[in-house]
Amino acid sequence: MTARPPSPxxxxxARPVGTLWGVGPERAAQLARLDLRTTxxxxxxxxxxxxxxxxxxxxxxxxxxxxxxxxxxxVAMGVNRYRKGAKSVFELILDDGTxxxxxxxxxxxxxEKYFAVGxxxxxxxxxxxxxxxxxxxxxxxxxxxxxxxxIHLNRLAPVYPLTEGxxxxxxxxxxxxxxxxxxxxxxxxxxxxxxxxxxxxxxxxPAAGTASEAHRSLDSGLWTALPSRxxxxxxxxxxxxxxxxxxxxxxxxxxxxxxxxxxxxxRRRRFEAKARGWPCGGDNRCxxxxxxxxxxxxxAAQTRVLREIRRDLNGPHPMRRLLQGDVGSGKTVVAACAAxxxxxxxxxxxxxxxxxxxxxxxxxxxxxxFGPLGVAxxxxxxxxKTAVERRASGAGGQAALGLSAASPRPAPLVIGTHALIQSxxxxxNLGLVIIDEQHKFGVAQREQLVRKGRYPHLLVMTATPxxxxxxxxxxxxxxxxxxxxxxxxxxxxxxxxxxxxxxxRVWAFIHGRLDEGRQAYVVYPRIEETAxxxxxxxxxxxxxxxxxxxxRAGLLHGRLASRQKEEIMAAFRAxxxxxxxATSLVEVGVDVANATVMLIENAEQxxxxxxHQLRGRIGRGAHESYxxxxxxxxxxEARERLRVLEETSDGFRIAEADLKxxxxxxxxxxxxxxxxxxxxxxLRQDLELIRWARELARQLPESGAALxxxxxxx
Length: 714
Ligand code: ADP
Ligand code: MG
Fold this sequence. Notes:
Blueprint: H1 25-33, H2 39-43, E1 49-52, E2 68-82, E3 87-95, E4 100-106, E5 120-125, E6 129-130, E7 133-136, E8 139-142, H3 149-152, E9 156-159, H4 168-182, H5 191-198, H6 211-214, H7 229-237, H8 242-274, H9 287-293, H10 300-313, E10 320-325, H11 331-344, E11 348-352, H12 356-370, E12 377-380, H13 387-395, E13 413-416, H14 419-422, E14 430-435, H15 443-450, E15 457-462, H16 468-474, E16 479-483, E17 493-499, H17 503-515, E18 519-523, H18 537-548, E19 553-556, H19 562-573, E20 579-582, E21 595-600, H20 608-615, E22 625-631, H21 636-647, H22 651-662, H23 664-668, H24 687-698
Parallel strand pairs: 4-7, 10-15, 10-16, 11-13, 11-14, 12-13, 14-15, 17-22, 18-20, 18-21, 19-20, 21-22
Antiparallel strand pairs: 1-9, 2-3, 2-5, 3-4, 5-8, 6-7
Helix pairs in contact: 7-8, 8-24, 10-11
The structure holds adenosine-5'-diphosphate and magnesium ion.
């Protein structure tokens, strides 16, 4: 995008940065590389940090563990070249009267021209050496004399992300001038909400009586007054205190969350306005005998969730429900009952699983469960093409759903993987779509499947306990049901974190469990050995086989043909194979009650939530189970991180810990996750803000034009 000439029609904040005083084409191009194209982009350019230039740290007090800002004058400098001039180090020696500091940069000889002996320099970093005090590749800024000095000195100075050729000092001055000129033009995207945002809101806790309490941080669960948007933008750049900077961030994050919540809510309203739900509540004629024959009674949580589902299936709008329940909480049976409700009502049900193994397992279970009821079940994965699919892909345009509900043919249940979406699968009369292990699918994929047919009911299930911040942003348009109770009679799962040198004893221990008739999983992070020292299933298979002889081991990973995968899973289920050596492919859904040991090598390679899922494969029967996490002997830090799993089996706590450690993208599995991107919002900590935004968004009128102003161009 090139800068357009300013036009009186374009609101000032939307004008290109090139129209600002002092920004020529070259600077505009540099700013564009940072995605700063309009005046508003510039004003929302978030500082990486603030440097406290009122209190520089004496050089003598700098430390190797904590980065800090110091200030000194250049007493000597020079470039040393070596390797015949191919390499160089530029060294700058600063003195502040307390000590000298050697700053070094490798292979950036041109830096020399930015400094001169006698210069007054700010330097930020941590020491890499103490004798002499040394900093490698620190951030620096030369103090210049001039009338703009008050922008840069004696304050919390913003330090921005830069791009090559763009000086920190220049950008800071540009932001300052732009604020001076445009601050008064910054308006809140939702003027009606402004008074609510700016006055303290009563809290959930009735104890919060006093004014001082009302101003405590949001973390304590109290709402607090936030600055106006204009004021927040000034404080984002030039705050008086670090608390001001944080409150500014919260205000701007709140605006982002309101924009998101408004989107979610209006999408939901539009959807409900146009989509009517098929009557899929059923009449119990299949469910009754199904439950009678099941061999166990549903937990209270399962029953409650089923009531919620039935209400939706009988409701005026298509169900949009997320079923959350920790591993082993019994979501499959709930799915089966929901499917039967739709089937009783004469509709077709599609059940989608993320892996062929899991689809195959569901097929086996549902066939066993539904066979006696006379309800046909079909499997359709990449390797299984069913009659239904062939019919569907051949027949074409018969999309008249619903009307054929009266068809006497019992509606089949079709189980598949994502191949279901990709193929021409378009059954007549699709009433309900169930997606198992939703987090393994992208949001886009989910939408794709649901668009098949005309607004079938949708039930998505996940075992990933999704921290509330993520759930509300990612699944905000879904209603939530939670199975918060495990079936009784489960054996305990004990978890141990061990260093790799303990392996011989671990093998002996596992051998002992196999002697008792149990089975085991052994999981590795890789299929094949690559560079580095990560263990791989294909190479470790021999080791495991030898260590656990005479018991039989089977090998399972994603590169095997479907047929092979099925054979191995079948053998493991039948206890013809006692040890399953696998990749994290077994993470989701696999259910073999006799398997009581889970050994995971290079456990540090997995996220905590993923390890929790893997651990969920055991403890499914009455026997005591053991999860052993092995991490590289040298990696004590990783072992500390893994201790969370020793301490708790509460999936929510584990997911929260994972979120803090690795961030939302990692926790949910990257780009697929469909998480919105925020410039200011932080999904690790902003739960209260998101809740508040949700409430505020509800108070907005149906439509508004100014709304998109607040949305950051993520
Ligand atoms: P997940 O929620 O992880 O998908 P599953 O649906 O695979 O869990 O259930 C785990 C195991 O618990 C299965 O073997 C299932 O048959 C069993 N199960 C489910 N509900 C109950 C219950 N109410 N009582 C006893 N066992 C149950
Ligand atoms: Mg499951």
